[in-house]
Amino acid sequence: MRGAKAGQQSKTTQQAKTTCPYCGVGCGVTATVEAGTLSAVEGDREHPANFGRLCVKGSALHETLGQQGRLTHPRVDGVEASWDTALSTTAERLNTLRAEHGNHSVAAYLSGQLLTEDYYVANKLFKGFLGTPHLDTNSRLCMASAVVGYKRAFGADAVPCNYEDLEEAELIVLVGSNLAWNHPVLYQRIKVAKERNPLMRLVVIDPRVTDSCEIADLYLGIKPGSDAYLFNGLLAWMAKRRKLDTLYLERHTEGFDDALAAAQQTAGSVAEVAAACDVDPERLETFYYWFASQLHVVTLYSQGVNQSASGTDKCNAIINCHLAGGKIGLPGAGPFSITGQPNAMGGREVGGLANQLAAHMDYHTPGALDLVSRFWATDSLTPILPEGPGYKAVELFEAIERGEIKALWVMATNPAISLPDAARVRAALEKCPLVIVSECAAHTDLLPYADIVLPASGWSEKDGTVTNSERRISRQRGMLPPPGEAHHDWWIMCEVAKRLGFAEAFNYTHPWEIFDEHARLSGFENGFDNSSLPGSPQRLFDISGLMGLGRDGYDALAPIQWPVTKAAPHGTARLFEDGEFATANGRAKLLAIKPQGPEQALSAAYPLRLNTGRIRDQWHTMTRTARSPRLMNHRAEPFMDVHPDDAHNAGLIDQGLAVLTAAKGEFRARVRVSNAQRRGEVFVPIHWTDCFTQQARSSALIDSITDPLSGQPESKHGAVALAPLATDWQATLLVADGATELTPWCTSAYWTRIPMRGCQRWQLANTQSVNDWLAQLKMWLPGDVSVVSQDPTNGRLRAACVENGQLRWWLMVGPPNELPGLAWLEARFNEATLSDTHRRRLLAGCDDGAADTGPVVCSCHQVGQTTIVNAIREGDTSVEALGARLACGTQCGSCIPELKSLIEEERPNARTKQSLATEVV
Predict the structure, then answer these.
(1) What is the greatest pairwise CA distance in the chain?
(2) Where is pLDDT greater, at 785 or 256?
(3) Are the CB atoms for 792 and 719 separated by under 8 Å?
């Protein structure tokens, strides 16, 4: 029987190699499908981005799937409709608005979550055939400044480095990135490289002390927004100390004299820069000396640099230093922008930004309009193509607010949450005559504004390609059918295009056909001797070597870095090795940079500087990661990190509730008092939405100020005031899944919902007192109170409801620090019938004598802080010892910095192995 069962299992089990849908690292994933269900994932050991490593989000991918909460049927004007009705209505309304208001009245807003093939079809449809330039992407919010910086310096949006350079470098400079949390697999690669090469150094430059500092040799806690001063100062220091590569500058660059003059004028001395950046002069000069003295230097930068009103200049200030030192085009050297989304770069390749045309051609690229028009065969259309760029993201929604844009098609993103000044965005969406939304989640903050809702496929269903931060194209393979009537985004757009009269141009039947066309366009008339584009250099983005793969070749496509041409059929690992750049004269350009502070000014009313960002276990607006309960454990509630002095001045305590107020809105969350914050600064996460909490949207605190060159919002530099959120009571409520659809407690002054296995946890607080909690519970919850314990003297109460032997809800009135470990209660919600013993222990919330494991530190293995602290006190005073005992820190490694902090805090309380042995004797 055993052999027969094993044989049957093997027939229903399949494995597929695909790519993770989260950050821009682009990790390879091996997925196991059993009986039509994705049952497990692990890192693809052969994928060159991760070699088998996965972070906790990636390793939980299979836990985020399922039809529950998925959008499965089209809707038109709030009513479920057939696909034919939805597609025909979409086409008819688009045509009507174009006829009445012109082509430019139509727009699209896309996402770095889309596959390249989806992006290509969207760009072709809107710019090529609908004749509107107004197509932009949420990548505008995270990588646009890096794009413009590269284009100004190199002549193309071209990341020169690869991940191997992180292991080849002698010095890595990490700027504006908490790599340990936001790109954990790259952080682990650097960590291993440092262990192998003790001479490698890591410098972390960030206003916050983050987990990335765990392996740092030097930390510079600069003043927010002062990056350009720092790198201008580095350029001036290199010139003064004669640390420039003058030969490289003479042969391969231009603009150095102006760049140096600007640097000397604005950051001419270490003392001047130290004052501007608010850092120690000696530590600053140490960084300058290390950078100038090493050839193999990689500067890895991300949102902390880009999300600024002068983000482009900051990027170019970094690039200037690499060019001046000849630290580019070499193993272990170069300015390396690390992308935030899985396909931010793929979207840029096909023209997914409003200022791009297609295949890395801009509207101002000589001859590009004619070239793309001929390739797409749009010659018969009027106009052939838009003649200039469209509105960038923030501008786009301002145009909707003005009434200039009449129709908006949003795909795979949530601008009602992610864009700055979110209230204004929502007002614009409410006003827009036609909002079309392609989405896979049934409940998002955007859907209430949609006139037409189109159910789209998601990860594990979509089939196509993505490009990661190192220019590596990888296949994302579909393994499961889309649920219900959901369809792929490219198919949806093609069907609409056919109904618009463009059937011949959108007659694709499989993603490989789209990819093949994309590859052909990248190589179309691409060369220095191209007579149709006089004076135009060769376009650097070229994957013409991947033309003609056919379906089998496409399905088998292995990860490869562009350019991929006949001359480089196996791809290109590193750019500019020959010192030739994609500019008209082949030289890189150094830019004169004038540093600027944040545009959102502090004031007496708003005296604190706000920083926003991601956390370790969540992704964007949590529509995927919140489906995995274990990913909710590390930071379960929205929070704000506050320096102890600022907390004291505001009358706040750790884990108390507070409100941040800005000119545009409010943010309510739990306080985390932290010395990792600079005085006068606050950090909040970007992930929480109205689906999970009340008034904890970080975008409500940010003004819609953008970089004038890139259009990227200044999301890192808000101005806020801090005050306690005065409440009369706090409570924790656990409600069984499906127990009630009514949530009357959501009128509380503070609430947040935390998905768990089998139940939903609600943290509640309110300013109004409750005189009779039993009466309140009858108003809030179904069923009768089965057990209750109440202390009228302090307002504490615990109550639970059991119906037909099953636990339906559990309530504790009191602060969260009085909670028992909730794992025991969570398990009770999954029991078909409670035992008498468990029923008796409900109010205690745990078995008699059961240990409280504390808040989760290691999400991979669900190891709590109390368990870890106890192990440390018993003598396991190293990360390795804790891993051997508890398995924490042994999978993705993201919790290791937190483990080290706990070890340092508890070391004085730890018993030695010798003392333990003595106690045993």
Answers:
(1) 93
(2) 256
(3) no
257: which 2 tokens? 């004299």
The number of folded domains in the chain is 6
Per the omega criterion (within 30 degrees of 0), is the bond before 563 cis? yes
pLDDT in tens, 845-888: 887 656 677 788 888 888 888 888 888 888 888 888 888 888 88
Distance, in Å, from the CA atom of 7 to the CA atom of 186, rounded to the nearest integer, reads: 39
718/734 same-domain check: no
State the pLDDT at residue 742. 52
Q: What's the chain's Rg over C-alpha atoms?
A: 28
- For the chain, report the end-to-end CA distance as a whole number of angstroms: 51
Residue 333 counted as domain residue? yes
On whether both 463 and 502 belong to a single domain, the answer is: yes
Q: List, in sequence order, the alpha helices (H) in 115-269.
A: 116-123, 144-154, 163-168, 179-182, 184-196, 227-240, 246-252, 256-266
Q: State both tokens at 380.
A: 């018969």
Residue closest to 71 by CA, chosen among 343, 461, 340: 461
- Contact present, 222 and 204 (Cβ < 8 Å): no
The verdict on 838 and 905 lying in the same domain is no
**What is the rounded average pLDDT for all residues in the chain?**
92
Between strands 28-34 and 37-43, the pairing is antiparallel
Token couple for 67: 């039809």
How many angstroms separate the CA atoms of 838 and 826, rounded?
A: 12
**Tokens coding 429:** 């969406």
Q: Residue 897: its pLDDT value, please?
A: 85
Instruction: Indicate yes or no: pTM above 0.85.
Output: yes
Please state, in angstroms and rounded to a whole number, the distance separating the CA atoms of residues 892 and 184: 8
Task: Give me the count of residues in the chain.
Answer: 921
- Whether residue 580 is contained in a domain is answered as no
d(CA 300, CA 190): 11
DSSP reduced 3-state for 298: strand
Give the Cα separation of 626 and 95 in Å (integer): 38
Q: Provide the domain limits for residue 302.
A: 143-340
The answer to whether residue 525 is domain-embedded is no
